[in-house]
Design brief:
The protein is mainly β.
Length: 637
């Protein structure tokens, strides 16, 4: 037993005179960090120890609660409590009694109190308190005590004792780590379908398993990364949304991309005090990894049927998510009565393909094919291609069933802003968007179809005009739409058309941006050597050593898009050029194509080679360059 000296002082009243002490007043002890010792403090009441209603031990640099290990014992309830810096109870338990079959340990930033391993005796005038404590940080501490007698309203409170002894904690202060606190199964999982899942974790000291309930905050937890293959986005949140959460608790929201391969993951985060690793935790006989990724159920969203060839064979395209990206699974095509032998399915025909979002199959009708309506279902072998890894009760290898002998939906821009570029529009300019129901066998409009079709665009900037639906009559309807930007370096915005009586229709609208561009010269006017500001022969933001010869490129007003392909169009003469981003400027930090804001007065630069291809005049008046044009541009080819 390690005894730490303490003295509770003395107090005298008409009835009571009590003090605190122990077997070696004036001595000192030395222990290593996280050594679990049992420390004794004696409390005396000359009217009898049964009069003592509360006994408090303070171990710290002073007798103040702030920054100290403070423990309070209430004999009447047998409650042993760890106090916080404001002397409020942070946590408590019945002294000497286990909780849920294991020791009750209260962890604070100054000490860890094992309530179960602690004990108290009361004989004669002496209340003897044995505290099982561990200290996670090095330092020199003094030992203090304080007692109260009699219940309210007659409570008598003694003064805090002077320090008559000390405790030295040596070694290296324990680093913080983190662990989960799993609820009922399943927990600490993410499905690889971009569905966010949030789980709660806490800080603790290694060598223990208890979350810190006092004095330590997880506010600085940041930059969390998951090991393994595939993209998993992790967002820390503090304070935790968990009911009754202590400051050491924090939440992590995981969004696993379909590229995330199933399996357990390690999680590493940063904090102000250094890096932390989230540890596995065992609870109820089950070990929970910090995160486990599982395959998500494949989702079949739409079917496109193409016209048959001379033999009657035809392709169908299945659209959806989580089909599997490494190895093909299988597809079943059955009549509504359950017969599945009407077609020979080719997974390796000329145009057959299998990706996570699209499956192309060649179907050859057999002699027994009856025609009519068919149900289609996809079975995935998982994102890793080694067999579907299911989360029981949450994901299965088989997709939903979808029929392909019914109208399909498609969208279009009847008056595109740029020729020969499909459904092309100009950002921030309203346009007419047309929706049709059509026969997937012939491609012609299904004039018998009527109803509301829901329009869902991928997320874009605020302030856009995005109708929730368009009403179709005789198979067609229109709505006014206005788009302002694209995500990242995307060529446009994706949309999905849905109606319960038709196959949904995915599509993309190419978003062009209209801005004025000036000319970037290989050698600036009046110069032939380097370094010269503005000469791309010398340097650009994407090519620090410059170009060896004149080049075709475009400069945009924000970084992060170097080498991205770009298509440029001059509406004044109809010239088009395929180019790429190789510089930043003339202004910076203005990605108007993402934010939806108006382009700056000069929305970028085009090289002299690109200017020639677009038919833009430029040149030099002595040492002064001239030339600019309003052009349209978009990302992609």
């Amino acid at each position: 037993m390690v005894s730490a000296p303490a003295w509770c002082g003395s107090y005298a009243s008409s009835r009571h005179a009590f003090r605190c002490g122990e077997s070696r007043p004036g001595g000192s002890d030395s222990v290593q960090v996280l050594y679990q010792g049992v420390y004794r403090t004696d409390f005396y009441d000359f009217a009898g120890s049964s009069e003592i209603t509360q006994a408090t031990v303070i171990v710290g640099p002073s007798n103040a609660y702030n920054g100290s290990c403070s423990v309070q014992y209430s004999p009447s309830t047998q409650q042993l409590s760890l106090l916080n810096n404001s002397a409020a109870v942070a946590g408590s338990g019945v002294i000497g009694q286990p909780g849920n079959g294991s020791d009750v340990i209260l962890a604070g930033s100054q000490c860890l109190l094992d309530v179960t391993a602690s004990s108290a005796t009361s004989v004669g005038n002496t209340l003897r308190l044995f505290l099982s404590l561990q200290f996670p940080t090095t330092g020199s501490y003094s030992w203090y005590g304080q007692a109260k007698a009699l219940p309210a309203p007659n409570t008598v409170t003694g003064p805090v004792s002077p320090s008559l002894g000390s405790l030295s904690v040596t070694g290296t202060s324990a680093p913080l780590q983190a662990r989960g606190m799993p609820p009922a199964q399943p927990s600490y999982y993410a499905l690889n379908n971009d569905t966010p899942e949030t789980w709660t974790y806490c800080l603790y000291y290694p060598g223990t398993t208890q979350c810190i309930i006092e004095g330590e905050s997880a506010q600085s937890v940041s930059n969390c990364q998951a090991t393994g293959t595939g993209l998993i986005h992790i967002t820390p949140t503090w304070p935790s949304s968990s009911p009754g959460a202590f400051p050491s608790y924090f939440d992590l929201t995981f969004t696993a991309d379909p590229s995330a391969v199933p399996g357990s993951r390690s999680i590493n985060c940063s904090t102000d005090s250094g890096p932390i690793t989230i540890s596995p935790v065992t609870q109820g006989g089950q070990t929970y990894n910090p995160l486990t990724v599982y395959d998500a159920t494949p989702s079949l969203n739409a079917i496109t049927q193409f016209l048959p060839d001379g033999t009657g064979a035809f392709y169908i395209t299945l659209w959806g998510t989580n089909f599997g990206r490494t190895n093909p699974g299988t597809v079943s095509i059955c009549t509504t009565s359950g017969s599945c032998g009407d077609f020979t399915i080719s997974y390796s025909a000329q145009y057959s393909t299998w990706t996570d979002n699209q499956i192309n199959l060649l179907l050859t009708p057999n002699n027994t094919s009856a025609g009519g309506a068919y149900n289609v279902q996809v079975t995935s072998v998982g994102e890793a291609g080694m067999g579907f890894v299911a989360l029981q009760g949450y994901s299965v290898a088989q997709s939903n069933v979808l029929g392909f002998d019914r109208p399909s939906l498609r969208g279009s821009v009847p008056t595109p802003a740029v020729p020969a570029d499909g459904d092309a529009i100009i950002a921030s300019q309203p346009f007419t968007f047309q929706v049709e129901a059509y026969n997937p066998h012939t491609g012609s409009r299904d004039t018998s179809f009527a109803g509301a079709v829901t329009i869902s665009f991928t997320l874009g900037p605020s302030g856009e005009t995005l109708p929730a639906f368009v009403q179709l009559s005789a198979g067609v309807g229109t709505a006014t739409v206005m788009l302002k930007g694209v995500p990242g370096a995307g060529s446009g915005r994706n949309y999905t058309l849905t109606n319960p009586n038709a196959n949904s229709g995915p599509g993309t609208i190419n978003v062009w941006f209209q801005a004025t561009f000036d000319i970037e010269l290989y050698h600036n006017c009046g110069t032939t050597a380097c370094p010269v500001l503005g000469s791309y022969a010398c340097q650009t933001a994407c090519e620090p050593s410059g170009f060896a010869s004149p080049a075709n490129f475009i400069a945009l007003t924000a970084g992060g898009v170097c080498s991205q392909p770009v298509r440029a169009y001059n509406p004044a003469n109809g010239n088009t050029s395929y180019t790429g981003v190789s510089d930043e400027g003339p202004s910076t930090n203005n990605p108007y194509w993402n934010t939806g804001s108006a382009p700056p007065s000069i929305g970028g630069c085009i090289s002299d080679v690109l200017a020639n291809q677009l038919g833009v005049s430029f040149g030099c008046n002595g040492n002064t360059p001239y030339g600019s044009a309003t052009i349209l541009w978009r990302f992609g080819n």
